[in-house]
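ENCODED BACKBONE
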Amino acid sequence: MVLIRSIDVSPSMVNCSCAWASDYQQLSGLYHCPHTGAVITRTATLDGFEEDESHTVAFMKDSLSSLNSYGYSPHPLYAYLAWIQEFLEKGSSPKPFIISITESSAERLSEMLVTIQQFRASNSTWRSRIAVEFNSSCPNIKGHPPPSYHLPSLKPYLDVFAKAFQDDSTLTIGLKLPPYIITTQFHDLIECISSYTRTDSGNPTNPIAYFTCTNTLGNSLVFADQTPTPDAKTDMSPFAVPPGLGGLAGEAIHALSLGNVYTFSRLLAESDDPAMREIVIIGAGGVTSPEAVRRMNRAGAKIVGCATLLGKEGVRAFEILSGNL
């Protein structure tokens, strides 16, 4: 069991926000899976993302890796709230839901949070069953680079979450981060998040309860002949996904993701800010085996998440990761 503020994640394994957590059936499978401790939705926007045939995924033939050109979920926020309401009202499991959200502006993100907070307030037991995760790191949105790579762009969104947390300290907020590669990127992010720590109540508290490290690695290229069915693809395009470039995931980024988890874990533990030392890390990126789960735990992740294996195996992925097969 791992407690992230008011959210109890038991067992300490989750899906990542991804295309395989998009609709009711997929969420139902994750919710009823005994090997997941929480369900994270695909990233929702206020009105839904316009998805077309260029948004897809390709798996690689030589490793359990993937390249995707997906954006956000085509389903709007209200669809996820309706589905979650049904699970919480009719389901027998106490499993919490983490609603992954993002928007093109801080103002629209604020609208989403208001709606979610009204939803959480509609049932007294739901405050400990519903959390939010800000996807600040999707690399596939044209004209909207990931704000977590540019802190002046990230701060207006963090201001919105800080205000929501100030109004309701039971709100559990996570931040899904991109892969970082430069030392200053880690230190600057820690400094930025720490600036939101408040001491009004006597105990230092920070609106961010957890980091998910990491999202996919953007600007990655895979050719069609690197996939299991190259012939069908090369007739249309030499690339594995139609845009050519996409977000790399799975075993291909495992070492980088481990490095991010380890670096953030160390910086958080060594922080002079006691609120920062309370932040939990969800380790993601190339979690395709029980050994990879253990590596994430050794690097500092208290919870482990996966996406590529879920896309490949369905919810059976979590049985594999639990070492039960």
Q: What stands out?
A: Residues 169 and 208 are 11 Å apart (CA to CA).
